[in-house]
Amino acid sequence: MSTSEDTTESPTAVAGVSKQGVVVMRINISSASPLSEDFIRSTIIQQIKDELVRKGLPSDITLRLVRSVQLGFTTRATPVNET
Q1: How many CB atoms are located within 10 Å of the residue 4 CB?
Q2: DSSP string across 29-44
Q3: Which of 35, 36, 59 is closest to 46 using CA atoms?
Q4: Dihedral angle of Cα 44, 46, 48, 52, to the nearest 10 degrees
Q5: Which of 9, 36, 44, 57 can bridge 40 by disulfide, Cβ–Cβ 3.0-4.6 Å?
Q6: Across the chain, which distance is largest between two alpha carbons, in Å?
């Protein structure tokens, strides 16, 4: 009978080194009215962060807006029939 030893080493923490990663997300947001970049930075980014934390990411994650582009904005109105 032969036996094998587990030679897998477990990772050890090194002082001052943290596991950091960069994830890039491209998100399309649609709104009934135009959103200012300030509103996106203060409100939308926080809502995205809250959802990511709710899904299990650490609460100290950092999100930042790299770029925003406002696409064509159209307003739809229902015609009024005058009699």
Answers
A1: 5
A2: ---SS---HHHIIIII
A3: 59
A4: 180
A5: 44
A6: 98
54 band by pLDDT with thresholds 50, 70 and 90: very high
Question: How far apart, in whole angstroms, are the C-alpha atoms of residue 65 and residue 60?
Answer: 16
Q: Where are the alpha helices (DSSP H) in 1-83?
A: 37-39, 45-54
> Of the candidates 47, 17, 12, 18, which has an alpha carbon nearest to the alpha carbon of residue 31?
47
Q: Quick one: which of 4, 45, 7 has its CA closest to 27?
A: 45
Instruction: Kindly tell me the sign of the dihedral angle through the C-alpha atoms of 46, 52, 54, 59.
Output: negative
pLDDT digits (tens, 9 = 90+) for 20-41: 788 888 888 888 888 888 888 8
Closest CA to 68 of 32, 26, 33: 26
